[in-house]
Amino acid sequence: MRIYRQLGLLPVLAVLFGMLAGCTGKPPVIQSMTPASGPGGTIVEVRFTQGGLGGVVLFDGTAVETRYASNLGLGKILRFTVPYGTAAGNKDVQVRSDGETSAASSFTVTAGGTPESPQIDGVEIPNREGKEITVFGSKFTTLSKVFIDGVEVKRYAGSSLPLRALPLEFVDNAIICEPQTPFTLGSTHTVQVRNPGNNNSPDFTFKVPTRVCMMEFDALDGIPLPDYYRFRNNTLSTMRRGYTECGWILELSYDDTAIPDPQAGAVFTPADMYSFWQANANLPGGSEFYMHGAFVTADDQGLLGIMFMNTGSVPSLPNAERRLGFSVFRNAFSGSDLEDKYLRTTMHEAGHGFNLLHSDGDGVRSIMNQTSVVGSNFRYIFSDISCDHLESHDIDAVGPGGEAFGSGRSCNNLH
Predict the structure, then answer these.
(1) φ, ψ dihedrals at 224, nearest 5°
(2) What average pLDDT does range 8-21 have in this prediction?
(3) pTM summary value
(4) What is the share, in percent, of the chain residues with pLDDT greater than 90?
């Protein structure tokens, strides 16, 4: 996969060496258990040291289905679901690893719990290879099984593009898995999540997007990238999910996230942003669609972000570079919902790269409305009109590198 090529072999070997360094041949030692109490059905994360490269959790002396938190697999963060129907009281939790068993920690069961029926509210396809899908919804557990087109598929701990673990707080809202047969672009499928006790979700039908854009993120040293997952309005959202639902696969790559500040603390002008783009964007060959996102300090207008690659901002911009780059200004964000708005702005500016404007003219709130319009009342979704533009309008009017931004065939001028 592309991210592995970008990461190269050395970082992966370094991670594996770090894991091997933790193999002491000594019994595992539980460092923490989160949470330490709850009813049957509670998802628990156990962190341990020593032991081997993997392990299984023993709950009240019995091995339970155990999942890793990392896709590098054999790690020292384990997750399990407290068995339903367990009698209330204190129960021993142990880790068995490399043939050795840890001392017990205590988990307090507060009630037996009742299996619930899961619900699916969306999916995300991260790459054109079709070997990975994230299913979003609610009431998932580590015991949940995923069926695509009626066939049970393999679950992952986290996504491989980019390498990351699914945070514990979202384990009940997302399952990342591998279809039995790779998806093809434009194909239609059904997915179902099944919980113990014959508690199954309704079938959810989805279509694999037909359009693909390679999206590269770069950041100045000390400037974080947006959180991949944000939970808002009872929905777990990602940047990829919003675009998957509107016909595009975004192949994200986190290229260089520690670039020295070329402005040495000064603000960025459009000319500075273009120079940064020229220095750091890795344009693919051929006819691939590509967009670059730069995460920097601040601009000279006090904006949250801007899609600056249009002839109004960069004079004499080559036609082939139209809509290929945007910037997001971390220092402009503040308040308790800073991280929510940081991801929202990233999705918004990328939307301009796909020739979406601030309004579709239908009055519907969407990710493309300006912050001054939506304030804190926003969701990470596109309007139906914007979605139709992304998915079905002439590719030259949509794809980065096509027609000029705001042209006669930009989104709201087509309706």
Answers:
(1) -75, 155
(2) 42
(3) 0.88
(4) 71
Q: Is the pLDDT of residue 22 over 60?
A: no
- Ranges of each domain in the chain: 23-109, 119-207, 211-413
Assign domain 23-109 to its CATH superfamily: Immunoglobulins (2.60.40.10)
d(CA 121, CA 140): 12
When pLDDT is averaged across residues 201-223 and rounded to a whole number, the result is 97
Q: What is the homologous superfamily of the domain 119-207 according to CATH?
A: Immunoglobulins (2.60.40.10)
Tell me: pLDDT of 72 over 60. Answer: no
Residue 266: partners with Cβ closer than 8 Å, 6 or more residues away: none
pLDDT tens sequence across 153-198 = 999 877 765 656 788 999 999 999 999 999 999 999 999 999 999 9
- What H or E segment, with its residue span, contains residue 218? strand 211-219
pLDDT for res 88:
98
Alpha-carbon distance of 409 to 322, in angstroms, equals 14
Contact criterion met (CB below 8 Å) for 339 and 230: yes
Measure the CA–CA gap between 40 and 84, rounded to whole angstroms.
Answer: 4
119-207 and 23-109 share a CATH fold? yes
Strand pairing category for 105-109 and 37-38? parallel
- Dihedral sign computed on CA atoms, order 101, 105, 108, 114: negative
The CATH class of the 211-413 domain is: alpha beta
Q: Which two tokens stand for residue 69?
A: 């938190």
